[in-house]
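Encode chain A's predicted structure.
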Amino acid sequence: MRISQAIYLDHQATTPVDPRVFAEMAPYFAKVFGNPHSVEHVFGWESSQAVEAAAATIGGLIGADADEIIFTSGATEANNLALLGLGRRAALGNRRRVLVGATEHKSVLAASRALQEQLGYEVQYLPVDEKGFIDLSVLECSLSEDVLLVSIAPVNNEIGTIQDIAAISEMARTSGTLLHCDGAQAPCAIDLHTIAEFADLLSLSAHKIYGPKGIGALYISREFQARIEPLIYGGGQQGNLRSGTVPVALCVGMAAATMLLNSSDVQIERERLRERTKSFIQHVQDLGRPVFLNGPEDARRHPGNANLRFEGFEAQSILSTLQPHLAASTGSACTSGIPEPSHVLRAVGLTTDQAEASIRFSLGRETTDDDIETAVGLIDDALARLSRKI
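Encoded structure for chain A:
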């Protein structure tokens, strides 16, 4: 079976590059090929202008300026630059505590552990309720003048929970604490035009928004850029915050993907996706088997997220049976192959067995009603085949 015939329901792992994005990128691989940091000639100037325009476009998505956008290799690097960059430069200060959501992406959790193990910070993991929402009362009680940073994702990558970032920001600022948001999953789910008013640092990833892999960005409020120690040293590019030659074509691609999210019909697209996801969930639950939704059931979840728990089955067995016809996952692609239950699902109160019975289906802008109908049929057949083996 050709991969083009398979149904792809793993858009929170990665998205296909939109043809319009690819078309914008193409000239920058061969025709406009200058090093953007070559300031002595027109080839460099042309590439530099493209990078500056890309930064301005991405900044416009979140309410930031171009010089507040630092290009990285992706959201994982951006998360590390935010946490470790801030932590290293503040290592001799009085703020020795960091608050991190219990359901954060592995890159945030790993970076926070590095702060603890390498620099002696105290890291506190903020609990969530059964739907994945941060316990704001615990956050409020935990904040004090010794807290350097709070890191909470606006949109969870496994169960799609959308946090109240405005309320979290207000609490953080009362104690002078900086707020970092891993926004990799956010652009396709919520409007980010004013998030720079609430977050001091925000990580983004192009391949989650129909752009190319290998490029991301960290928004750093101009006010706090001097407080970030770079992770990568070299020629001092990007204001000495991230050295290395910026990949022009990838920057242009990320900006092109961002432009599609700035279109006037993006909210209509989100609502269409939400209705399609609801239809998929309902049809799977109508198969007559004990299937439950993990995470929020309303508009406070990513519109394309359907994290379903198949009681009495193992998720890996279902996914294997569905191959090569349907693509989904048990959670973050960054943890694939790790033989342990999802930390996100455990944090919301699921048992190990329940977590290992859960699959994340994530629909995208090209998912059709026919895809849903076919996918439900494939799932029904897979469950029937597995039942006969039990």
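DSSP finds 13 helices and twelve strands in the chain.
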